[in-house]
Amino acid sequence: MQGGPAYGQAGPGYGQGGPAYGQGGPGYGQVDPNYGQPRPQGTNGLAIAALIFGITPLFLLGFIFGFISLSKIKKTGQAGRGLAIAGVILSALWMVAWVVGTIVIVSAVKTVLNNNGAPGFGLTPGDCFNQNTTNAAQPIDKLACTTAHDGETVALLPITGTTYPGEQAMSQQANDQCVTATKSYLDPAMDYPNLTPAYLAPSALAWAAGNHSIVCYVSSTTGKLSTPARGTGTPAQH
Question: What angle do CA 224, 225, 228 make, to 5 degrees?
């Protein structure tokens, strides 16, 4: 026959009390540092600003607000992380577009200055060419004189002075000197009834780029030339 526990033995845990005297439960005496301070709610305002600036050309502000808002959201747990990231990405795309656009513009300006700034637009006596009146970046196309062309260069006239003289002054110099230069260039024993002297003068842009020469050339009164100008004459009648 089995009875209760052996005489003199206490039940389980007899003599064992709860936690040591003076010790509280878990965390006893510790206060949550955020206790009583409400956590920010809603979407982070800087994240919204980052997205707005990321959509516009003010992409630098998009970068700034985007990174600041991501740091704050990480600490506060507010919503808006996706908006901040989108703002940063859009700002990055704007920056890439800005860099590419700047490179293209600088390259175009260099091309314009190079093509307009060469003395006489890069022409020398005997060069044949076509004019590009609608292309400031490439005003002159050099061609072989055996292909259809607008003119053949006969002389370059240096323009005196250090400031842009204006169209009227250059026109006066060209009218005075290009006729004489054309006669010297062509064969004096031949007549050229279908040729007429003309000139190209630098614009203010070309002058600023370094082109300080007037181009004297001959063109045809009946259309384009297709052979060297000297070969279009007929024996002079004396």
Answer: 165
Residues for the chain: how many in total? 238
Amino acid at 114: N
- Residues 6+ away with beta carbon under 8 Å from 177: 155, 157, 214, 216
Rounded distance, CA 198 to CA 202, Å?
14
What would the two tokens of residue 152 be?
């053949």
> Any idea what DSSP says for residue 237?
P
Question: Bridge partners of 131?
Answer: 140
Euclidean distance between CA atoms 96 and 195, whole angstroms: 54
Give the dihedral sign, CA 68/73/74/79: negative
pTM: 0.54
Predicted local confidence at residue 10, as pLDDT: 47
Residue ranges of the chain with per-residue pLDDT less than 50: 1, 6-8, 10-11, 13-15, 21-22, 24-25, 27-28
Q: Which residues contact 124 (CB under 8 A, 6 or more apart)?
A: 153, 156
CA atoms within 13 A of residue 202's CA, in its CB half-sphere = 30
Q: Which two structure tokens, joined as six digits, stand for 83?
A: 């908006």
CA distances, 25 to each of 30, 32, 78 (Å): 11, 15, 33
- How much is the pLDDT for 208? 85
